[in-house]
Structures are given as C-alpha cells and as structure tokens.
Design a protein that fits this description.
This protein has a six-stranded mixed beta sheet, with helices on both faces. A hairpin with a 4-residue loop joins strand 1 (28-31) and strand 2. The protein folds into three domains: 3-87, no CATH class; 117-205, Phosphorylase Kinase, domain 1; 212-446, Transferase(Phosphotransferase) domain 1 (Transferase(Phosphotransferase), domain 1, Orthogonal Bundle). It is globular. 35% of the residues are buried. The protein is built from twelve helices and 22 strands. Helix content is 37%, strand content 18%. The chain is of the alpha+beta class. Residues 131-411 form the Protein kinase domain.
Length: 447
Amino acid sequence: MPPERCRACLDGVGAEIRRRIGSSKMGGAIHGARCTLRYETGNQFFTETATGQRKGHALLIIATVYSLSVVCTRLLFCVLYITRRRKRGKINSTEQPKDIDEILRLWKMEDTGSEFSLYDFSQIADATDNFSPRKILGQGAFGPVYKGIFPDGQEVAIKKLAARSRQGLVEFKNEIQLVAKLQHRHLVRLLGCCIHDEEKILIYEYMSNKSLDYFIFDPNRRTSLNWMIRLKIVEGIAQGLLYLHEHSRLRIIHRDLKASNILLDSELNPKISDFGMARIFPSDATQTKTSRLVGTYGYMAPEYAFEGLLSIKSDVFSFGVLLLEIISGKRSAGFQHYGEREFHNLLQYAWQMSEEETWHEFIDQSIGDEYEPGDMMKYLRLALMCVQVKAVDRPTMSDIVAMLSSDDITIPEPRQPAYSYTRVDVSVNINLSCTRNDITLTTTDGR
C-alpha cells in the first residue's frame, strides 16, 4: 500500500480511537485496511486534569508510533532493495516502484538465494536495439524472444509478452513464482523481470546454441549431434526432470516438455526452459484432475489429453516422445510415414519397427554406425516404456535416471504404446512449429 494511503488509514484509525476513549474501560482493537491497532484504558496511559477528566494523549502517541513502525519497516525494505539494485546496476536513479507489496514479494524471492532482479525498461530497450527485429531469437507462445547485450557484455535472452495478453500474464506470473526458486544446472536460469506500463518482460540466461529442435529436425544441422552428444542431452533432460519431480523445494510438473523447450549452451548441454505452463503438484498426491488442458500436440499423455488427469507420469510420457524424436530425428507432431504401410504417428511407427526387429530403419541415418546395437535397443525400449497407455506402467524419472546410468538394470518388455492403434486429429491445422494452449483433441478413429 502506498505511504499516502497508509497515512490516511492511520488518521482514520486515530479518529476512531479518540471517539472510543471514555466509552470503554478495558480498551480494545481497531482493524485498519492493512494493520491492527490495540489500545488499553489503563491509568498508566492517561493523565488527569484538575476536574478529574482523563485524557488519552499518551495512548494516542503509543498507537501512532506502533502504526508508523509498520509503515517505516515496509519503506525501509523498499529503500534497501532499491539501493541494492542500484549498486548492481539493475535499477536507475529515477525509477520509482509502483507497488511496495510487489517489491517486498520479489525481495523475498531474492532472500531464497536466487539472483532474481528487477530491470529498468530503458536497459532492456538498449540491450535489444529497441526490440529490433534483427534481435529476435524465436517466437514463443505469447510473444517474441530477443537476444540482448548489456553494457558489461553480458548476453541474455529477453522474452517479451504480447501486450494485453491475459493468458500471457498468467504465464508471466507463473514463471516468476516458480523459476526464480529453482536452481539446477539443467534448468534455464531466470535472471529477472521488467514491468513497464503494459509491457511484461522476462530476462533469462542466454543459450548460444538455441533449442534442440533447431538441430534435431534439420537434415544438415542434425549431423552436429553424434550419438554421444545425443546421449548427453537425454541424460541432462532426465536429470532436470528428476529435480523438478523429486528434489526441488517445490514438486513441479512441467506440462510442456518438447524439443523447442530444451535449450543448448555453448557445449551442447541441455537446459529445460519455459515454465509458463508448469504446475506445483502436492507431494502426497499421485494425480489430480484439471479442467484446462495446456501443452503441445504430439507430447500429451492420453489420460491428460482425454480426461484431464495430471501427474508426474504426464512429464514421463513427454520425455518418452522426446527420446523417440532424438533417436529418429523425426517430429512427433504431424508425423506421417508413407511406404509399404501407412503410419499416422511416431509412436506407432517406433512400436512396429521394434516388433518386427527392423528398428534400424527408425534410427536417424545421420548417426551412422557409431552406436552399439544393444545400447540403441536399450534407449528405444526405455522410450516405449515411457509412452505406455496406462500411467502406472510408465517408470518414474528416478527409475529412468537409474536405467540410463547403469547397464545392470533390466528394462521391462514394453507393451503397445499409446496412440499406436489410433489416428489422432486436432481441432485446427498444425504446422511444424505450432504450440497451442487449451488444445482439444476432437477425434480418435480406430484403424
């Protein structure tokens, strides 16, 4: 609450105290908009006049000091916050916070050990050449992502939410509340945010090799990802998901794990990004039901797509689809294969190739023959286990990490995976890089 409003509230409470004095012998409490004042009518708080009348001057002073201490404490935190930001160069000398509660909330985030900061809009505009189209790295679901360079040479990725986007605002708040508290080497770091009029901006660490889909689905660039690099990417994604599901302060379901949300640093190490659709999940719950579906076609678990049932196994399903894409170099969304037989989705194709022991046809030919057949079968079988129809039949991320790191663990024989016996359509046409919120799967026609 701004200081002037707090002052007005305090004046109103003071007037109420003066009205009540004399009518109460025991005292009481008065509740203001943001604070509560207590008063007592004991003799120690009063002075008597020559006529025997008692006045509450001392009482009013005590109450006022108590109330002002609340205001001063809040203002002190605000001043300390601004001073700290100025020293780091994040806020300029003319910036005035509009909402003390917001400042304190972000201050609390910083106190958790994260390096979350508030940035001035002019800094962001300068870093992106006033949001030049030449600086655009890509297009997110709710706005463009720019490359920015600060005066000290630091490179950042700047996500600008579309103005007046209601859903974008939900994503914006979600990212701040979640990502600022998550710390893992396989999660993209959120450095801070900027709020300026209608502009809502998030600032992330910059990942020089863009996203996994930039490489894996391009016939030329995918040759840069040999088998060992792909294994490193798979293991890193698994470690990041395990952290979200079991080791972070909050139990998080990502809900939109896909190739475009896996960013790669200069050494091609993977980092999971885009937590706008992520959801905190109770640690003592196995699943929950949601009435609003968010995610991307081709990666959604069947129980979530058709029944709204959400659990950590939803992310496991997406991980399995992603693993099949990494092995094959083919997209799940919009997959079509026409040869001697017609396959309508990637899972169906992978299952059939595995059953007929012609799985070498499924593997991305740019990998060459640098892999061991037994190892490849291990990863293909693990992927098929992750995309089982029933969530209970899928492994957890801790199981997956153990299987990836050991050759002594036997992976169960997978059953027929989800969607491998149906043709799944969506309510709109989908291009190769499309992401839609509130997706509705309209038909599932048996073959």
